[in-house]
Amino acid sequence: MQTVKPRRRQARGERRIAQLLDAAADVFATDGYTAATTNAIAAAAGVSPGTLYQFFPNKQSMAEALADQYIAALAVAHDQAADRRIAGVPLDDVINQMVDPAIRIASENHGFTAVFHFSGRLQSAVTDQVDGLIAIRVPELDPSRRRLIALVTVKIFEALLPAVLSASGRTRTEITGELKRVLRAYLLDISD
Amino acid sequence: MQTVKPRRRQARGERRIAQLLDAAADVFATDGYTAATTNAIAAAAGVSPGTLYQFFPNKQSMAEALADQYIAALAVAHDQAADRRIAGVPLDDVINQMVDPAIRIASENHGFTAVFHFSGRLQSAVTDQVDGLIAIRVPELDPSRRRLIALVTVKIFEALLPAVLSASGRTRTEITGELKRVLRAYLLDISD
Amino acid sequence: MQTVKPRRRQARGERRIAQLLDAAADVFATDGYTAATTNAIAAAAGVSPGTLYQFFPNKQSMAEALADQYIAALAVAHDQAADRRIAGVPLDDVINQMVDPAIRIASENHGFTAVFHFSGRLQSAVTDQVDGLIAIRVPELDPSRRRLIALVTVKIFEALLPAVLSASGRTRTEITGELKRVLRAYLLDISD
Amino acid sequence: MQTVKPRRRQARGERRIAQLLDAAADVFATDGYTAATTNAIAAAAGVSPGTLYQFFPNKQSMAEALADQYIAALAVAHDQAADRRIAGVPLDDVINQMVDPAIRIASENHGFTAVFHFSGRLQSAVTDQVDGLIAIRVPELDPSRRRLIALVTVKIFEALLPAVLSASGRTRTEITGELKRVLRAYLLDISD
DNA sequence: GATGAATGAGAGTTCATTCAT
DNA sequence: CATGAATGAACTCTCATTCAT
């Protein structure tokens, strides 16, 4: 009985948090992280600035919360493709299974690009995934070299993502294709 | 000869402009373009804010002036390697002749990375150079596809440049090597 | 009754607005509209610049808010004299009933003169009142000519008001008398 | 022989002064006295700010120099009409001979209106002229009352001048007519 | 929890005026 | 005389954050 109230409170709080993060993602996407203002985010969420600070201690923390959301979404996608992550799968398939969900998640979450630039956590998470995949495919690779390759791979993805997202239709397909071509060429080169 | 007198006046101004641009490059490098403030630039140059505005109408114009400097420096480097830009040269040499001077110029000019992100002019200039080189090596390529490839190449360079510059010694060599590997693999892939 | 709570929040804000407008009127009166600075107004109101901008987007909007106050005060005075605004009243009485309240309001509101110069709204409101009065007294007058006469009347008032306000005692009475003399002579001239 | 050089210098200096005052009048007319900047005036005159300050110690002094020009021009016009300034002349003629040249001079000198507001000297000079005329026509008038009437007359002129100048063709004639009507009615009233 | 008022340092920019050349 | 570089205080306006209610 007494647990009902707390639950409601938590529920309301979580709704608020979701609402604020959605607003933050929109504003980050529109103005960029730096130019985004907490007042604008609060306004976009339809609450007062004070309310925002009841849930987030500062702007940075909102970006990090979004980063966590994106990390979780990527993990889900990654796990769904887990069964094909074994050694024998063609590289093209692996790339598709990494790039396509990532692009989809970035498309569906307006703030993704903006947050990616500022969240070391998100970058690390993605890099870890890539690193793991390379480890499976090229087990003999030196771990530190592998890390470097993973980093480079992620940087390339980060660099081309905005172009992909701002395009649509045929153009988007083209640019996505180019991104995959780069990655395949690079990663094939390593395996040799 | 008669121009000496008028020039003396400009000389001070031109020294100031150089001084201000140096300061701007430093501040851009340290704080990033967005966070850089005109007051900080003026202070770094040892002049008052008003002096800055006698030569530059705003921050953006300073970035563009730096971009022009970098474009000029790149053009010089490019021209010096002109004799080897002919068709038969190995791809590795071409990449070396593009990447090494670019990294050198970026090393010598602190503001390069920061300006690169915000100056369409600088990005276009580099893209044009790359586009031209591809045209020589793979003349049968469709021009619009060639432009896309050039753009991707430049984005990759842009994405990895900060990592190169923030490293030194062996690590820098390693990362530079990785950058070249990516480009070689990608560009070889096209020629097929 | 239920509106009490929400109002309490606005109450502070509305007090601040009144306080800021009072301060603005003082500063406008002292320095003139153009020379008045928002920082000076904020300081005069005992608040920080940021607070001012929470309620007014700029200096102009403060002048307009004051203009609205003055328009309202003039309307009240005008309405109180409404019963004597009928056709048969002597011109002298009409002039007294226009000029005296206007001077009183201008005396009681330090910013009046300064705002009058810059607020088309305030000028229009006063001109409309005068226009209406002339319409009652000289109905056969062409409306566009009537408007012109009203405009001239208001400009004369505006031109002599500062002299009236900066005087006091006997001198003020004298200058006020001169203002009324001008208007009476001019408006009598028209009726002919 | 030695006087040639100084003369040349003076001549050049006076040309500069005229050039600067013309520029100042233009800028005052366009932007108003307060908003006018000395840099803008110097630029409009085609000289450097330093040169401006070689001839005028500050902005105010330029307004005063212009005021002197206008006073001189008004004096010439006044003197030309001197023969009709005697007692018997109809009031309408006197008003015409005051108003018409003043409007002509204001038309021909863009800065007139702007300077009029800020130059006590110019206002006094005009007031003196009017005062003198009234003295001739109504010699029995108490001097201090006469001064007041002259002041009021000049304020009315000042108040309606911008409307006259910003109009043209028929409209200008109309407004000018209204100005004269006001003055005639007022001044006739006094003579009674 | 929620509100919105309040802060105040600091951003970009301007300008009358001075001074070295 | 002329130049134009230099000044620096002052201006308008912003925003992350705090706090009374």
TrEMBL record, chains A, B, C, D:
UniProt keyword Flavoprotein, yes or no: no
UniProt keyword terms in alphabetical order: DNA-binding
SUPFAM superfamilies tied to this protein: Homeodomain-like
Gene3D superfamilies assigned: Tetracycline Repressor, domain 2
The entry's DNA-binding region: 37-56
Pfam families per the UniProt record, alphabetical: TetR_C_15, TetR_N
Residue stretches making up the HTH tetR-type domain: 14-74
Identification of the protein by name: AcrR family transcriptional regulator
